[in-house]
Amino acid sequence: MTERTEAPEILVVEDSPVEAELLRRALIRAGYAVSVAKNGEEGLQAARARRPALVMSDINMPLMDGYQLCRAIKYDEELWNVPLILLTALSEPEDIIGAINCGADAYIVKPYVEANLLERIRSLLTSPIRRKRTEERRENMVSYGGQRHAVAGGGEQILNLLLSLYENMLNQNRYLAATQTQLNLLNESLEDQVRGRTAELEQTNRALRILFACNVALVHARSEEELFQTVCRQIVEIGGYLLAWVEYPGAAEGDSPRVGAWFGDAAAWRCHAEMATTPEHADHCLAAIALRTRETRVCNNLHEMPECAFGLLREAGVAAILALPLLHNGEIHGVLITFASVADAFGAAEVELAEELAGDLAYGIVTLRIRAELDRHREHLEELVEQRTAQLAEARQRAEAANEAKSAFLANMSHEIRTPMNAIIGLTHLMKRAGATPEQIERLGKIDGAGHHLLSIINDILDLSKIEAGRLQLESTDFHLSAILDNVRSLVGEQARAK
Fold first, then answer.
1. Average pLDDT, stretch 462-476?
2. Sheet arrangement for strand 9-13
């Protein structure tokens, strides 16, 4: 039966629980047994209680630091040949001289590469220490930083420590070089991202300026033609685009769209107008497709369009096309088309703002048409008011003429009737004075009363004409009620008795 080999035990002396645990896990993965001490004093006691195969220690620790622990182990009669690695963040020359003087076999600076650390451990475990530190200790004086330093150590110990330092520094240089390469790549990537983001922001700001200018035009425009001419000009001048124009849908299905307004490069416009007359171009024209589908159409690279008809546009300098349907409440009122001279001119944010502009233009079309319809109704209403005013003036003139004729008739009638009536009343009065019989006197009295009553009616008619003319004057006078009642009785008494 094969005997099972016991894993070498490594004593880790580290006051940081996190770093101790990370180191413990790395050593266990490599197949070592691991024990942990929190400081140098505890580590020395653990090493004397159970001899480890190797000790790994931090330097800065409470109670007993790594230098003191290393010196205690190297001068211990039982532990002098246990390899000891100082694992620390200290990397000054004074720290390294201190490691040599205390007898450390390796000096590794954090952060370390796990594979290199394990290789150094294997190297120390396979190269046993044969001479005590007291036997090979030699002291030499070295100068560094303007100061003299005493270095005491054996040749094998110093060589191992310097080799570990060299490996560590070489790995750190490689790590720094790799880090520098990554930083350079990240910097280049960041610069590309910044340039890309800057370009996107420029596009977005440009689209916002266009949107603002077009909304101002929307407020001040008096007609659709004025609105679209201003919008196309703002798109080209502010956005730096090649060409912009607006098309209306055909009057009937199947009819060709008609142009509302355009602004920009004349050569590109002539090229589009020439191609629009070809039947095969209509199947691929983004403007026609946007009108049919009522959806935004974007081509950011015209070279990707294999259709031969687009070759003429490319020759005219067109590299990208944006077609926006003008929709309001589900009804399409036209399409706004923009040509750009550079590829990828229409980013997602810019297209979104352009679609907002298209919605505003569609609303503007509806508003202007309602305004025009109201203007037509107002003009028609003014015509009706003028006609009605003329009719009323004519009716007033006719009424005034009729009133004048009535007044003349009444004046003439009163004159023609009053004269004989006065004669009747006068003759009746003379007959009563000429010696008539009582019966005749009574009858003549009735004739006289009826004459006066008829004369009062004539006077009342004249008063009505005076009222209409505004010349009636009221008069206050005394009267006898009994006489008025006798007068009424004489007028209507006969009719009353007959009934």
1. 67
2. 33-37, 9-13, 54-57, 84-88, 106-109
